[in-house]
Amino acid sequence: MEKNTTTKHTEVTMSNWISVKEALPKSINDEYYYSENVWVLCDNEVMVMRLVLIQDDDGDWAWLWANCYGNVFGDGKVDDDYEVTHWMPLEIPQNLGGQDENP
């Protein structure tokens, strides 16, 4: 049985969400033009995505959302059809993913 990795928007409180009209996730650093993975509200679902700066066929640059398909550590698949309205940081415990709890 496949696990559902999304949650309906109506089940989520809006108090911690940031509107994409107010701010966008910052780039990881000046060398990599993508953000950390974040929670987003997209098409009335909660998803894991990242913001990516890519060049289109005309040579123009644009920030687009990339769906990480619920994988908090994964890369995303970019699509210009995602209609993200809000986002918030994705808090990942330090001891998750094989990292040491006390560095």
Polypeptide structure, described:
This protein is mainly β and 103 residues long. Strands 1, 2, 3, 4, 5, 6 and 7 form a seven-stranded antiparallel beta sheet that branches. The protein has no helices and seven strands. Strand 4 (45-55) and strand 5 form a beta hairpin.
Overall mean pLDDT stands at 78
Unreliable residue runs: 99-103
Rg computed from alpha carbons, rounded to a whole number of angstroms: 15 Å
Largest sheet: 7 strands, antiparallel
Distance between the termini: 37 Å
Shape: globular
- Strand % is 25-35%
Helix count, per DSSP? 0
Helix content: under 10%
Helix vs. strand class: mainly beta
Order of helices and strands: EEEEEEE
How many extended strands?
7
Keywords summarizing the entry:
7-stranded antiparallel sheet, disordered C terminus, 0% helix, mainly beta, 7 strands, 103 residues
Entry summary:
The protein is mostly beta strands.
Outline the secondary-structure elements.
Blueprint: E1 7-8, E2 18-19, E3 38-42, E4 45-55, E5 61-67, E6 77-78, E7 84-89
Antiparallel strand pairs: 1-4, 2-7, 3-4, 3-7, 4-5, 5-6
